[in-house]
Amino acid sequence: MKQFTKLAKLKFPKDFWWGVAYSAHQTEGNNYNNDWWQWEKAGKVPDRSGRACESWQRYRNDHKLVEQLGVGAFRLSLEWSRIEPKEGQFDQAAIRHYRKVLQSLRKRRIKPVVTLWHWTLPLWLTQKYQGWHNREIVALFERYCQKVMEELGEEIDLLLTFNEPRLPLNKGYLVGQYPPGKRNIWQFWQARKNMIKAHKRAYLICKQIRKGLPVGITQYCNDFNTEWNGFLINKLIRWVEQKYNWHFFKRSKGCHDFIGINYYQGFTFQLKKPFFKMRKESLIFAKMKEKFAPIGIYEVLMSAKKHFPHQPIYIFENGASDSEDLIRKRYIKEHLRQIHRAIRKGVPVAGYFHWSLLDNFEWQSGYGPKFGLCAVDRNTMQRTPKKSFYYYQKIAQKNELDLEAEV
Ligand code: BGC
User: pLDDT at residue 6 above 50?
Assistant: First the structure.
């Protein structure tokens, strides 16, 4: 009986960072000076971001929600096109605004985790230099990073240069679904090379300005497994996994103070078309169109530990598009159960950030998918916490997952 009680409550490490996240273009509103807005105007996506969640004006309101949620960290991104609206010209009013945003979090004892680039490029940059495939972008990113660090570096607790480099590279250069809408493997390679270079340079700049600031990236990671066992297949799967999940980290070795992981879904390899299909643990999520596999987060964490045995690991995104808030509580519970299992096996997981605080602009899917712990009324912009908000609140406040709590 005693042992049962112990197992029903999973305690997380003492200094574990509980957090929640969102990004600039998805929430701020009126970001009309970047490549995504052009993309939206060109009719490439079902909705235009437009007012988004008006978080530019309503950030204090958002921070109150983060405080109420009881998490100690908040992940947000800076909009490059606001900070540097014209080439080489920095907007001091925008910088002051972001300083207020970061200070408002710190006043509430919430650690700001800042991403420098969450997918949007200033318009002047794409018009003159096109995008990441042009090598001149490395110096431009460096200058932007330098300015941010000089002006705001003191207010940041952890910095991510890039959010999920893999996605904008694949979708922007191979599939043509994100700007710049290319399908060109040569430009894909160039873009990837430049991004890796830009990360390394930015890392060094951050260290020169604030040595103690933890700096890295967060990558979109999947777990890869197969229904069919065989030596060659297994080799192939591990190769794909290494390329997808860990390539960026390995190519910029020495420039990561931690391993950042965003986990949503897993893949299963099969010997018929389509060779990779989304992995699904159907017993939990049978009703959903989307496929979820919480066990995959455990496998990704174990693999991260194998590849980078000495680095702390953060989950910077994990969440579900669930418009009626039907499965989110379960989604959180099952993923945290697997994260805890990895911690018990010695994986140094230092934090978990849920995606997202608000229902927001979901890139190529517009406003359809709802990832928020809070709903946003698209007319009044009022935020309303969902049931899952209160569920996650209990976990974060108690630093413990109660397996017996109702979901
Ligand atoms: C991105 C977010 C996005 C989320 C849900 C992540 O890959 O970083 O910006 O909203 O997935 O699709």
Answer: yes
Residue nearest to atom 10 of ligand 1 (CA): 362
Averaged over 176-198, what is the pLDDT?
A: 98
pLDDT at 310: 93
Distance in Å, CA 354 to ligand 1 centroid: 11
Q: Is the pLDDT of residue 234 over 80?
A: yes
**329 C-alpha vs ligand 1 centroid, how far in Å?**
19
All residues at 6 or more sequence positions from 296 whose CB lies less than 8 Å from its CB, including other chains:
222, 223, 263, 265, 266, 279
Q: How far is the CA of 25 from the centre of ligand 1 (A)?
A: 11
Q: Ligand 1, atom 5: nearest CA belongs to which residue?
A: 362
- Whether residue 355 contacts residue 317, with contact meaning beta carbons closer than 8 Å, is answered with yes
Residue-wise DSSP of 21-77: E--HHHHS----SBHHHHHHHTT-SSS--TTTT-HHHHHHHHHHHHHHHT-SEEEEE
pLDDT at 61 over 70: yes
Give the CA-trace dihedral at 278, 283, 284, 287, to 10 degrees.
Answer: 70
Spacing, Cα 319 to ligand 1 middle (Å): 9
More confident call, 290 vs 163 = 163
**Separation of CA 176 and ligand 1 centre (Å):** 17
Is the pLDDT score of 286 beyond 90?
no
Among 290, 314, 363, 367, name the best residue to mutate to test ligand 1's pocket (greatest count of ligand atoms within 8 A of Cβ): 363
Q: Are 111 and 72 in contact (CB under 8 A)?
A: yes
- Number of Cβ within 10 Å of residue 289's Cβ equals 6
Q: How far is the centre of ligand 1, averaged over its atoms, from the C-alpha of 22 (Å)?
A: 9
Separation between Cα atoms, residue 316 and residue 356, nearest integer Å: 10
Q: 65-123 pLDDT, tens per residue? A: 999 999 999 999 999 999 999 999 999 999 999 999 999 999 999 999 999 999 999 99
Pick the residue whose CA is nearest to atom 3 on ligand 1: 362
Angle (nearest 5°) at CA 335 between 13 and 4 = 65
Closest atom of ligand 1 to 163 CA is: 8
